Amino acid sequence: MKLKIVFKLRYLWMFFRHRGRLAALAIAAVVIAVGVPLWWKTTETYRAWLPVAQINELAQLQLQLSVEVEVVFSKGTLTAEHQKKIPPSNTRQEEHVVDETTRLRYRYETRYRTATIMEEDALNQSTAAEADISLHMLSESPSGSVVIYVVPESSTVLPEGVSVYVGQRRTALLRAGGQMRVAVALKEVLASLETWIKQVLQVMSFSHGDITAALSDRVRPGDRSREGLADSMRAFKSSPGYEITFSLLNPDPTSHLLHWDVEAAISSYIQPLLSKMAPVANFSIDSQILYYAVLGVNPRYDPTLNAYTLNADSLSHVINPVEARLGSSAASSNPVLNFLLYVPDSRHSPLHITDHRRHTVPSNAFSSPRWGGIMVYNVNASGTELPVDVHIDMRRVMGVFLPQLRLMLGVQSAAPPPGFLIGPCGNAGLADWELDRLMWTRSVENVATATTTITSLAQLLDQIGNIVINDNIAEQVSSAVASLQLAVGQLEVGNLGLAMQYSKEAILQSERAFFDPSLLHLLYFPDDQKFAIYIPLFLPMCVPILLSLLKMASEVRQRPGQGQAKKD
Amino acid sequence: KRNQCYFKRSLNVVCTSRFWFNYRHVANTLSVYRSVKRLGIPDSHIVLMLADDMACNHRNPKPATVFSHKNMELNVYGDDVEVDYRGYEVTVENFLRVLTGRLPPSTPRSKRLLSDDRSNILIYLTGHGGNGFLKFQDSEEISNVELADAFEQMWTKRRYNELLFIIDTCQGASMYERFYSPNIMALASSQVGEDSLSHQPDLAIGVHLMDRYTFYLLEFLEDIHPSSTTNMKDLFKVCPKSQCVSTPGHRTDLFLRDPGSVLITDFFGSVRKVEITTDTINLTAPMVHLEDTRPVRELRTEIQTYMDQLPVAEIIHQKPKQKDWHPPDGFILGLWTLILLVFFKTYGIKHLKHIF
Predict the structure, then answer these.
(1) Does B102 sit within 8 Å of A522, measured CB to CB?
(2) B340 within some domain
(3) Is there a contact between B290 and A453 if contact means CB atoms under 8 Å apart?
(4) Domain assignment of residue B318, yes or no
(5) Opening angle at CA A369, ends A365 and A370, nearest 5
(6) More exposed terminus of chain B, fewer Cβ within 10 Å: N or C?
(7) Which chain B residues are closer than 8 Å to A267 by Cβ?
(8) Whether A524 and B145 lie within 8 Å, measured CB to CB
(9) CATH number of B197's domain
(10) Contact state of A230 with B6 under an 8 Å Cβ cutoff
């Protein structure tokens, strides 16, 4: 009886132990099969898919810039035989390797033709400027192209000593050299023209130096000359928008009552320039008057000039105290250009700016790179009644601010080569070819900056594995990549306007993707913190499971031994 | 050798401690801010973050001032301070956002670090720190790995040309151990395992006014003027162990130039480059006067009425409001429940019938 109970108990015990073992195994199976993948999935950082292959392609930038050139021969420049044998078109390519990831190819597609009768009439004007204007009325050339009219050596349209006249739009007048003689072969004629055409294109379209300067975001410039560095630092970097502020500083309202018709001046002189530059960037203009705003520097009295002077060395200390009072539109992060008009107080009138050689500066103005310009306007406060009414001559003022503005925006270029005459820039203050030049460099700069942004974003996200990448980032990156590819394609074909537009879109999208506020979530935990979080959660649960598994394993090892013992 | 005059200077000065007894951290930050402004960097290029307002703290015996030297010699708060991030806005997230530029689009210009690849940036941090972290606001911390990653993000986006990192906390050297981006130079007030100590208390204000390292750093900077030629090697010698008690450390292996050729004014001061304007344009077209097309606004003719104000009697003779009765708090309830349970456990459940 007792043995039966013992056996029953033993069976019960084995049954429960069996069930216990099954339970432990089941729990372990659930933990491993369901728990671990669930924990892994819920604690991983969300990273949306990025088009990495396309981004890596962009890292290798191969830019091709195509310029369409039209060379028009007028009467007297080519003999009849040459005229019959002119090739209709010619393509010249220049390859440059900037560094191991950036290559440039310049493609000049030149078309040759002879002038039409109307063009001949236009070229027979007395001065180059008039010829230029009449030529414009005949045809319109697309953005990015250049038309060169070759006039005979004896022609009087170009003044003495001038070989090339660069007009307001996209045309240039080139005086044929002395090689235009009968016995010379056509090839030599074209070759000699080629050297002149190259120079014209470097002035009117772009030079290799300009393009490499525009690529400075991709390519660290290394050791450049001081002038080159100064030039590149003077103009603002390419930005989709700029803010321009005109300020009138009146330190002495009791003596001077100033009237300035700034709205009319801006709409007459500044706005045409900015409207013409609309493809490059948006501009917003405002103006203000500041009273009791003084310059931070005391001018010195110079008895030889009978005036107060501000030397060039002390000018740099003028800007900082004034800048705090200028204010700016807080809402946008576009670069700000400030133009200040300072009317000296009656105690320090007249005030002249002197350069390093102590000569007075005729414009009485100075500028600071990437900041803006300041002009000192002297006023004759002669009058018995104070305050004296002063009407500021806005034409003179804008005549100084306009070239400063051109300088800040990067329009001004290096001095032209010898023999070149640059014509006046026309009503808008900006010649078409200057705009084209700006658009070439700006679109290359935009493409370079956008590619660096996208590739560095991809690299960064790869390197720092903890950053969360949301879906909208992936979308923005994809659209930026698409815009970039379109921009590069349009540059290849030579559609400058479209290339500029796509490059601007690419920049906006890439900047938005890179600077998205959600990319900040760096989920970094030091190792000891990770242990501290997981151990209290997992250890109490894992210990019984592990122990029971270990016990089962030891029993399994013992049982063959036991079986053997029993058999014995 | 590139002329450093053409590089813009930007600054980020951060104080991370709250509470009145951390007065010295705010004074540290403000002193660096002041000397940098004196050397010519404008407010638009400085992002100043103060975690607490000491000048208008209730415990400040001299309101609207923050002194950096005992006997109240130098008021570093002054009239001209522009604090960009104040109080609870100084968080690790905001700090990292300012550095990396990942701010929401509505952030005003003064709260952004508008730097580009031609900016030399100075970052000054002070507060309480430990081995590998810096405490923000007594509630969160930034680790040295996060800081290094933030600087790497700045480098890849070309947000700086050269970066100088100064930290004045305990075990400050641990914060620059993990940097890996090029062109960073770092200085710290103490090594790992050492504490940075404060300089001197002021008996009138009742707290310590400055930390030692920043105090001697400031003395050093007072001798710098915008055209001085002192270089970084002199900055490394500031506050030796005899004065600072802790050992200041520095790290220059990531910096491309030789520290001896780096001027202090490359980071601390800036003189703007100016050019005389030589070209003028002779404008001949007459000005077109705009017609005033704005409509003349009609004057408002409706009578204005006032809202009902409080009756005067209620304002002048205010009786104390009778407090409504609230049932006892959770804590009291819990305590009583515990006492009852213990009683019944000890004396048996049969006594319950006496209650109910």
Answers:
(1) no
(2) no
(3) no
(4) no
(5) 120
(6) C
(7) 288, 290
(8) yes
(9) 3.40.50.1460
(10) yes
Q: A301: helix, coil or strand? A: strand
Instruction: For chain B, say whether A45 makes contact (Cβ under 8 Å).
Output: no
SS3 content of chain B, % helix, strand, coil (to 5): 35, 15, 50
ipTM score for this prediction: 0.77
B153 in Cβ contact with B112 (< 8 Å): no
Looking only at the bridges linking them, the beta strands covering A307-311 and B162-168 are: unpaired
Residues 6+ apart with CB under 8 A from A384: none
CA distance B278 to A489: 40
State the Cα–Cα distance between residues A50 and A516, nearest whole angstrom.
15
What does DSSP say about strands A146-151 and A171-175: parallel, antiparallel, or unpaired? parallel
Number of domains composing chain B: 1
For each successive 10 residues of chain A (568 residues), what is the average pLDDT? 81 79 84 87 82 86 87 80 80 85 87 85 80 80 85 79 83 74 70 84 84 76 54 76 92 89 90 90 92 85 87 82 76 85 89 87 89 90 78 90 89 75 78 88 90 88 80 90 92 89 92 84 71 83 82 84 52
A56 closest CA partner among A446, A458, A450, A519: A458
Write out the H or E segment, with its range, that includes residue A250. strand A241-250
Chain B touched by A369 (CB under 8 Å): yes
- B35 is in which domain, residue-wise? 8-253
- Is B170 noted as a catalytic residue in this protein? yes
Largest CA distance in chain B: 113
pTM: 0.79
The whole-angstrom distance between residue B53's C-alpha and the CA centroid of its chain comes to 11
Assess contact for B182 and B254: CB atoms under 8 A: yes
How many CB atoms neighbour CB B116 within 10 A?
Answer: 17
**Local structure of A389: helix, strand or coil:** strand
- Chain A residue numbers touching B156 (CB-CB < 8 A): 456-457, 459-460
Query: Residue B103: closest CA among chain A residues belongs to which residue?
Result: A517
- Would you say residue B297 lies in a domain? no
The single residue of B128, B199, B208, B250 carrying the catalytic annotation is: B128
Tens-place pLDDT, residues B250-262: 999 999 889 888 8
> Exposed, middle or buried: residue B211 (CB in 10 Å: 0-12, 13-18, 19+)?
buried
**B4 contact partners, CB below 8 Å, separation of at least 6:** B120, B263, B266
Place of tokens 């009768």: A117
Marked catalytic residue, from B25, B45, B69, B170: B170
